Amino acid sequence: MNGLPHLDGDTIDRLVPPGRAVEALEEALRGGLDPEQAPPRPVVDVPAGQFLLMPASSGPYAGVKVATVAPGNPALGLPRIQALYLLLDGATLTPLATMDGTALTTLRTPAVSALAVRRLAPPDARSLVVFGSGPQAWGHVTALRGVRPVEEVTVVARDPERAAGLARRCAAAGLTARSHPASDPAWRRAVEEADLIACCTTARTPLFPGGLVRDRAVVVAVGSHEPDARELDDDLVARSVVVVEARTAALAEAGDLVVPLRAGRITADHLAGNLADLVAGRVAPGPGPAVFKSVGMAWQDLAVASAAYDAWTARGEISGEHERGL
């Protein structure tokens, strides 16, 4: 091998479909991975946005994702979040491959949500409201459809054209779909009737009144990783069973929880459990809605990157067009 192999986005998507990504995450947790022991990720502010460094080690592999968040990028036609992943041998820390970290993030975040929804949502959950119109919004439609019989999707976004475009994409995939600009209050009815709600935005303040959400619904919020930014209001969080990836990460980065904690609306004991607890059946259902709050963690990237690398090597794809130097 003349250079470090690279798995591009198309290769990752081909080797690890959404359902396999969900399985890889659950396998990691069932194998004993403790989300609470994951190292905190450094976040460095730079003029254009932020650098995030996300290292993890588990079993035969280690890895690190270098991610950037550039709020001004969408206006330039570039992704807001971009990343590169380096996969390493766990025993020697020898580099094994690089991967398209943006594609990895786009795949693993909805897979994490789907893993939670598979445990929290009723089996007959069919209606989904998606806030947002970017890659994560579409990723959540695909992933949640894989774990529940979703038939109907309502897209709510600030940009009416982007919202309509995502609704058309959903319709082309065989779903009943409609869209509303965020400024149109007509979407409130869809929230009231939704079985599933996915919040995939860059909002810094709550997207909707929590009182609209019915008791049987499951809400996932993935859009923020800062303690002063949130998509959900205090009322929804306070009346819900709340599950997080890890308590340590959520209490440091999840504004959806940090803000009501600071206001005294909830205490840290309000968190019903983390993903490991959920997978192990240690989270008790409640009378109200369920909320899963995600900030994104490095062990998730490693689990999915490992699955991609294992599938890639098993198929004998270590040569050819994917072999190139850094």
From TrEMBL:
It comes from Microtetraspora malaysiensis. The lineage of its organism: Bacteria, Bacillati, Actinomycetota, Actinomycetes, Streptosporangiales. This is Ornithine cyclodeaminase family protein. It holds the Pfam family OCD_Mu_crystall. Transmembrane segments: none annotated.
